Amino acid sequence: MLTVRKLNAGYGKLQVLYDLSIEVPAKGLTVVVGPNGAGKTTLLCSIMNIAKVFSGEILFEGNSLIGELTHNLAQKGIAYVPQMGNVFAGLSVMDNLHMAGYMLSKAEADAKAEQMTEIFPVLKKFIHRSAGTLSGGERRMLAIAMGLMKNPKLMLLDELSTDLAPIIAERVMMEVARMRDELGITILMVEQMAKRALEIGDTAYLLVSGQVKYSGQANSLLHEPELCSMYLGIKQLPGQGETKLSVAEEGSEGN
After folding, report:
1. The CATH number of the domain where 228 resides is what?
2. Phi and psi at residue 226, to the nearest 5°
3. Can you tell me the distance from the alpha carbon of 221 to that of 230, in angstroms, rounded to the nearest whole number?
4. Could you give the CA distance from residue 106 to residue 232 in angstroms, rounded to a whole number?
5. How many domains does the chain have?
6. CA neighbours closer than 13 Å in the CB half-sphere of residue 52
7. How many CB atoms lie within 10 A of CB 15?
8. Rounded to an integer, what is the distance from CA 196 to the centroid of its chain?
9. Average pLDDT in the 70-81 region?
């Protein structure tokens, strides 16, 4: 569904990505992991025409996205859930959903908002509360629901687990997997919770200093001890085929 070829991108004169190429298969969950400053968020910003593309190709369903206005990408079926600032804190949950469904008629938006409260029951409980009063996990659920209001073909998710307690982050990860499995939505997810993301993902890319160091099946990356230890803070348990999450990964943030 999405193809990035030989992408060189950054901000102003600062180059962050170097000849980066990835493929995002339809109806799959593609995970991008890597250390701080690797360029993970810059990849998503390049797709959304927020970062500056110096050269390369970004194709969505075979059509180039280079130079497209960001708001036009929503009309093409791409939803972007940024790491921060992804809800309107002063508006109610319902008003946030309606803001996200601005392209729909009122009747369609009402129906879609009702569907979102069925998918995320916690939102129904707080439907008339200000989004700014929600917990971190509840806001992430609202942000995802706002993305789904647009009936997207492709969702770009940026660091959804940031600042969440492990049990809440796990819940968010399960909702992402459910979107793929039950709704058939194609997902490109940048994530600092690398081990869990690789466990639920289909395809994975490891970014280091703006370049791809690994591409392949997501779970297979967990069996690359040198890469996991050096770049993701995931240590292999001695004499076992399992991995554990280090303190370094729990506190990391992607760029």
Report:
1. 3.40.50.300
2. -65, -45
3. 12
4. 45
5. 1
6. 8
7. 15
8. 14
9. 92
